[in-house]
Amino acid sequence: MAMLDNNAPVGVFDSGVGGLTVAREIMRQIPEERIVYFGDTARVPYGSKSKDTVIRYSRQIIRFLRTEHVKAIVIACNTASAHALETVQKESDIPIIGVINAGARTAVRATRNGKIGVIGTEGTVGSGIYTEVMKKLRQDIEVTGKSCPLFVPLVEEGLLHDSVTDEIASRYLSVLKSKYIDTLVLGCTHYPLLRSTIGRLMGEDVTLVNPAYETALELKELLKAQGLNREADAPLTGEKYQFFVSDLAEKFTDFATSILPSEVKETRKINIEEY
To answer: 101-210: which CATH architecture?
Structure first.
């Protein structure tokens, strides 16, 4: 186990901007923590890539985050959590968590009729990982997965409240409505930004589970359990929140500023292929 400094930042990474929903929840739930965020904007989306490719990308990003001396890492991407979490956890001497376990646990606790829906990328839904984790927790539940590949580009284009988004969402969600699910997991970190649209279309009897929120709580518990939480009055050198991307830094900064509680001053572009 590496000697860890509890004043060190938490590393958070995603294929692009979606993981900012996780960063936002960490900022809200554990405001004293520092964050180094990496968005792989040059290689987004991960949802359509193979498992081997996603593992290779995740290893490179973890190597980069280690150069920033992070004390723990959150894989703020459902696809990378599905494909790479188990592999990189084995290779690492610092704690790494993904966004799937916390979301799956919450959904199993929340359901009343045992019918749960999961929406996500093709990679996440195709991996069957949510079903696998939920069935371990409760065997008799029925899980219906639906991939919604157009949600990510709609969010990235900023079309959060738009008739186009409504139209596509109602088409995707109709299959879940016919299954009478009572709980729906937003199984991609972009999707909480479409929460109001999804909630309206599913109706108020369906509980929406946001794994970003649940993961921030899991991180809080983990840091406390390992004695790694940062003291609120610890001295700060440099920016509390740092952002790095593999491409399109300006576009990222604009988007991040629009959804995070505080303005993002600067996003630095790095060559992730060097790691």
So the answer is: 3-Layer(aba) Sandwich (3.40)
Q: At what angle do helices 20-29 and 249-259 cross, to 10 degrees?
A: 40
Active site residue 77: yes
pLDDT at 238: 81
Paired tokens of 158: 């900023």
From the number of C-beta atoms within 10 Å of its C-beta (0-12, 13-18, 19+), residue 170 rates as middle
Residues of the chain with CATH 3.40.50.1860: 10-98+213-274, 101-210
- Burial (CB < 10 A; 0-12, 13-18, 19+), residue 80, is buried
- The token duo for 183 is 């709980």
Are the CB atoms for 116 and 181 separated by under 8 Å?
A: yes
Fold of 10-98+213-274: Rossmann fold (3.40.50)
The confidence band for 236, taking pLDDT boundaries of 50, 70 and 90, is confident
Residue 140 contacts by C-beta under 8 Å, 6 or more apart in sequence?
A: 114
The 10s digit of each residue's pLDDT in 238-272 is 889 999 999 999 999 999 999 998 889 899 999 99
Catalytic annotation present for 188: yes
From the list 12, 65, 77, 212, the catalytic residue is 77
Active-site residue identified among 155, 188, 202, 228: 188
